[in-house]
Write a structure and sequence with these properties.
Layout (H helix, E strand, L loop, with lengths): L5 E5 L4 H12 L3 E6 L2 H11 L2 E4 L5 H15 L4 E4 L16 H29 L2 E7 L12 H19 L4 E7 L9 H6 L7 H14 L8 H12 L10 E3 L8
Parallel strand pairs: 1-2, 1-4, 2-3, 4-5, 5-6, 6-7
Length: 255
Amino acid sequence: MLKDKIAVVYGGAGSLGAGIGKAYAEAGARVFLVGRTEATLKTAADAIGAEYDVLDARDEAAVEAHAASLVERAGRIDISFNLVPRGDFQGVPLTEMSVEDYTRPVVQGIACQFITARAAARRMTAQGSGVILSLDSASGNGSPMMGGTAAADGAIDALIRQFAQEVGPAGVRVCGIWTAGVADTLTPEKLAAAGAPGMDEAALQGVVGHLDSLRMTKRSPRIADIAALATFLASDAGAAVTGTWVNATAGMFPS
């Protein structure tokens, strides 16, 4: 589906980024994983036969220089997907949350998404084609105890729709995936960083079971599910999809 496409995945060392990169490579794309830590990037890239570049996707100058270098090395950029963590902090009521914990994912998230989408859009509009993708938890629809995640998701939702309107006439599609609680990305360490410390494997399975119970399908999404959807959206089969968010929450809410 992606034969000879050039794809860049920001946040490519994470479990979801590496899983999507793997799906892209298997679909025929030349994949570049991007992140800040070389050791984890190299491991992820080697496992899927991808290339990797080390940079901070929040660094405006570095992202622009990297996009230019991709065009020099590969000839074009066909797919750009930003999965960079935002420092979300959850599980605390807004009345007890600090300003820093609330605003961090909003400021970091929207800035990083804007920087990478803009860099891709500049190259894609010049070549007359391309797909820019994003992902968030859909908390912008309203979700208690999610802290700044809700505001960050709402801002990114709007950014993607606006980019789609502006670059669509040049042949560039821009859309996103809503998903949350992807079961095989969850670890005690990740949940602790998001505000749930002291969690062991048994408690983790309890969290996954609770998430399953909230779905219409009673099954939480897996990395392979989201990777397959991301491949479809990036391919010519998704040519009619732009300016929207695809609900891949397994029915956590209707849309």
